[in-house]
Amino acid sequence: MQLLLFDIDGTLTHSGGAGSRAIYLALEQMYGMVRYPKPVRMAGKTDVAIFRELLRINHLQERPGDLDELYRVYPRMLRRCLREVGDKAHPHPAVAELLRKLVRLPEFTLGLLTGNLAETARIKLTRFRLNRYFKLGAYGSDNADRMKLPAIARRRAGEMGIRVSPRQMVVIGDTPRDIACARGYGVRSVAVATGPYSVRQLKRHKPDLVYKDLSDTDGFIRQVKSLLVVCRASRVERQRSNVECKTS
Ligand SMILES: [Mg+2]
User: Fold this and answer.
1) How far is the CA of 238 from the centre of ligand 1 (A)?
2) What is the number of other CB atoms lying within 10 angstroms of the CB of residue 17?
3) Rounded to an integer, what distance in angstroms lies between the CA atom of residue 239 and that of residue 172?
4) Cα separation, 102 vs 110, whole angstroms
5) DSSP state of 9
6) Residue 119, phi then psi, degrees to nearest 5
7) 236 CA distance to ligand 1 centroid (A)?
8) pLDDT 10s per residue in the chain (248 long)?
9) Residue 111, SS3 per DSSP
10) Whole-model pTM?
């Protein structure tokens, strides 16, 4: 069994600016007028981390109960903003086709590993009818630190009877933060340049695989399978030679 954990923004979908606008509107509703003196780079950060960064920029203190309020207000704003942006929000090329193929293969379980809140993740995916492919998820509402999310995803899989080691997990994302959180937990990473980072920029962070986009669906499936094969082979090799293997 292999657990594939997909990021959402920049990897599966593009929200046409609805996500960032919704978080600004949520803050405005919660705190009154809010200033944005410099653009905040949101890619790869969890929604809670972005929320706290915006508070810091505005010299605002997080109050008890604020996160609960954010969880109530932000999804409502996101629904509104997604309606407003219309076709500017879209799935990335061949994403639906890839998920359809993957979900039919018994060796894979599909999950989410995203900085979105659990609710906003599902809102974004439902909009493009992609929600049904994912059995489980680890979200920004589970922990503000993305590095903690692979362990949460593995625990959730275990609770559903899907027992995997970190080497049987793959994180698919569009930013260096996705690659780092995979590496931090000993998980394979696949980077895709449909977000703000180019193939060249992503390569610098040494993901196991990197793609311009996910349009070569069969090539993606073949290569992701081979990651697991390399991992198995290296374990056998190590047992035989008792030597640390580079690929595992
Ligand atoms: Mg992303």
Assistant:
1) 35
2) 13
3) 29
4) 8
5) B
6) -70, -45
7) 34
8) 899 999 999 999 998 989 888 988 998 898 886 776 666 677 778 888 888 888 888 888 888 898 898 899 999 999 999 999 999 999 999 999 999 999 999 999 999 999 999 999 999 999 999 999 999 999 999 999 999 999 999 999 999 999 999 999 999 999 999 999 999 999 999 999 999 999 999 999 999 999 999 999 999 999 999 887 666 656 555 555 444 333 33
9) strand
10) 0.89
What is the Å distance from ligand 1's center to 218 Cα? 22
How far is the C-alpha of 165 from the C-alpha of 154, rounded, in Å? 8
136-138 and 108-113 strand pairing: parallel
Ligand 1 centroid, distance to 196 Cα (angstroms): 9
Q: How far is the CA of 145 from the centre of ligand 1 (A)?
A: 14
Residues 6+ apart with CB under 8 A from 22: 74, 77, 78, 80, 81, 120
User: 7 CA to middle of ligand 1, Å?
Assistant: 6
Q: Cα of 193 to ligand 1 centre, how many Å?
A: 10
Task: Quote the ligand 1 centre to 125 CA distance (angstroms).
Answer: 13
Compute the distance from residue 67 Cα to the ligand 1 centre, in Å. Answer: 22
CA 121 to centroid of ligand 1, rounded, Å: 11
